[in-house]
Amino acid sequence: MIIAEVIGMLCKRCPECGRSSYSASDRGSWICPYCGEDLRERPACPARPSEPEGRPGLGGLQGTIPV
Ligand SMILES: [Zn+2]
Predict the structure, then answer these.
(1) Are 12 and 19 in contact, with CB atoms under 8 Å apart?
(2) For residue 31, how far is its CA from the centre of ligand 1 (angstroms)?
(3) Residue 2 has pLDDT above 90, yes or no
(4) Cα 33 to middle of ligand 1, angstroms
(5) How far apart are CA 19 and CA 17, in angstroms?
(6) Distance of CA 13 to the CA centre of its chain
(7) Average pLDDT of span 1-9
(8) Ligand 1 mean position to 51 CA, how many Å?
(9) Does the structure show a pLDDT above 90 at 14?
(10) Domain residue spans in the chain?
(11) pLDDT tens digits along 16-42
């Protein structure tokens, strides 16, 4: 279910390629899936359902997720 995927997810933006990657946890290693950069030391932020990048259509779910 898409909503379950989004809640609790973390996002990091790669300084090398500028793309965002997502994970359920920032513990352990975090390697950029696009260029292989090690993002372990980068700050993580909560992934937002309205994040347009790579997740087209999720904006329509706004309002259905309890905050
Ligand atoms: Zn990258």
Answers:
(1) no
(2) 8
(3) no
(4) 7
(5) 6
(6) 8
(7) 59
(8) 18
(9) yes
(10) 1-47
(11) 999 999 998 888 899 999 999 999 999
From the CA of 18, how far away is ligand 1's center (Å)?
6
Res 11: pLDDT: 93
Question: E strands within the chain?
Answer: 10-13, 20-23, 45-46
Distance CA 44, CA 60 (A): 24
As residues whose CB is below 5 A from the ion ligand 1, the structure lists 14, 16-17, 32, 34-35, 37
Ligand 1: distance of its center to the CA of 36 in Å? 6
Per the CB < 8 A criterion, the answer to whether 18 and 32 are in contact is no
Q: Using a cut of 0.70, tell me whether the model's pTM lies above it.
A: no
Residue 15 has pLDDT above 70, yes or no: yes
Spacing, Cα 14 to ligand 1 middle (Å)? 5
